[in-house]
Amino acid sequence: MARLLEQWEKDDDIEEGDLPEHRRSPPPIDFSKVDPSKPEELLKMSKKGKTVMVFATVSGNPSEKETEEVTSLWQSSLFNANFDVQRFVVGSNRVIFMLRDGGYAWEIKDFLTGQERCEDVTVEGQVFPGKAATKKSKGKGQNATGKTKDKKAANRAAQYKQEL
Q1: Are 87 and 75 in contact (CB under 8 A)?
Q2: Is CATH 3.40.640.10 correct for 39-160?
Q3: What angle (nearest 5°) sits at the alpha carbon of residue 69, between those of residues 65 and 72?
Q4: How many angstroms separate the CA atoms of 33 and 159, rounded?
Q5: Rounded to an integer, what distance in angstroms lies between the CA atom of residue 57 and that of residue 67?
Q6: What is the pLDDT along the chain (164 residues), one digit of tens a residue?
Q7: How far apart are the first and last CA of the chain?
Q8: CA–CA separation, 35 vs 3, rounded Å?
């Protein structure tokens, strides 16, 4: 019986690719390829192969249906560019894009910030103003030290709390 149990335990070994993400070993980072003057490159490499959430805000005062339509266009454009993203509408003007490979998060951020109806995009806690951001809200983003100038901009979830 003991030998049979040992055989079963050996057969239960799960391959690395089949393990849940939190149990997989992270891919090695080659620091010789990282430019120290570009911290974004290090973030890209450290998030490669991990799930990352990208938050986007639609400008104006759209209804949830309008937000659904606008962000659906963004998602299909990303899909046509071979980016595997899932979209979840979480408020009347807020959406989450879930990426299976976080290494592409900054490319997707660049795409979203270039859209006419995008007010801002948040990746890894950093808020980036979009094309539709007003001059007032652009000044509330992050400064050079990475700290937010305005507490309201740092925690945008507070204003959406009642909507959920």
Answers
A1: yes
A2: no
A3: 130
A4: 41
A5: 9
A6: 888 877 776 655 666 666 666 566 666 666 666 666 766 666 666 667 778 899 999 998 898 899 999 999 999 999 999 988 999 999 889 999 998 888 888 889 999 999 999 999 998 888 999 888 775 555 544 543 444 444 444 455 545 444 44
A7: 55
A8: 53
Other CB atoms within 10 Å distance of the CB of residue 149: 11
Region of residue 10 (phi > 0: left; psi between -120 and 50: alpha; otherwise: beta): alpha
Question: Mind giving me the DSSP string for 4-19?
Answer: HHHHHHHHTPPPGGGS
Q: What is the DSSP string of the chain?
A: -HHHHHHHHHHTPPPGGGS-GGGSPPPPP-GGG--TT-HHHHHHHHHTTS-EEEEEEESSS--HHHHHHHHHHHHHHHHHTT--EEEEE-SSSEEEEEES-GGGHHHHHHHHHTSTTEEEEEETTEEEE-TT--HHHHTTSB-TTS-BS-HHHHTTHHHHTTT-
Give this prediction's pTM.
0.64
| Integer Cα distance of 103 and 45 in angstroms | 6
Q: Domain map of the chain by residue range?
A: 39-160
